[in-house]
Amino acid sequence: MTETNLVEKIDWKKMDGLIPVVVQDVKTKEVLMLAYANKEALQNTLKTGKATYWSRSRKGLWVKGETSGHTQKIKSVLTDCDYDTLLYIVEQKGPACHTGDYTCFHHDFKCAPQ
């Protein structure tokens, strides 16, 4: 699938302009973070190979690692069956989480046995 095809397959209106992006490390297979992309962020990601997101707090594009140096080089972009979630497979340099942890998913809560 080409860049244009992927961008056009997404129903941006249905998604209120933002699509969730799950980010996974290409080597460890760990889920690193969850972020959001708008159309422009996805186009930039596909064009540059650098993970680009929409920052809901800053209300602007955010290229991962632009200020921290903790970059994400895109290895592949996958979509789910409904084209309403993306999966970025990345080569992570440094921690992914703003707290300094390698992954944002580091709080472990146990479920009660069923």
Write the layout of secondary structure elements.
Blueprint: H1 3-9, E1 19-25, E2 31-37, H2 39-48, E3 52-55, E4 60-63, E5 72-79, E6 86-92
Parallel strand pairs: 1-6
Antiparallel strand pairs: 1-2, 3-4, 5-6
Structure description:
This protein has 114 residues and is an alpha+beta fold. It has a single domain (3-92), classed as Phosphoribosyl-AMP cyclohydrolase (Ubiquitin-like (UB roll)). It is built from two helices and six strands. It has helices spanning 3-9, 39-48; strands at residues 19-25, 31-37, 52-55, 60-63, 72-79, 86-92. The strands form two sheets. It has a four-stranded mixed sheet with strand order 2-1-6-5, covered by helices on one side.
Order of helices and strands: HEEHEEEE
Total beta-strand segments = 6
Number of individual domains: 1
Q: Using the alpha-carbon principal axes, give the shape.
A: globular
Structural class: alpha+beta
How helical, in percent, are the residues?
Answer: 10-25%
Unreliable stretches, pLDDT < 50, 5 or more residues? none
Notable characteristics:
two-stranded antiparallel sheet; alpha+beta; 114 residues; Ubiquitin-like (UB roll); globular; four-stranded mixed sheet; 2 helices
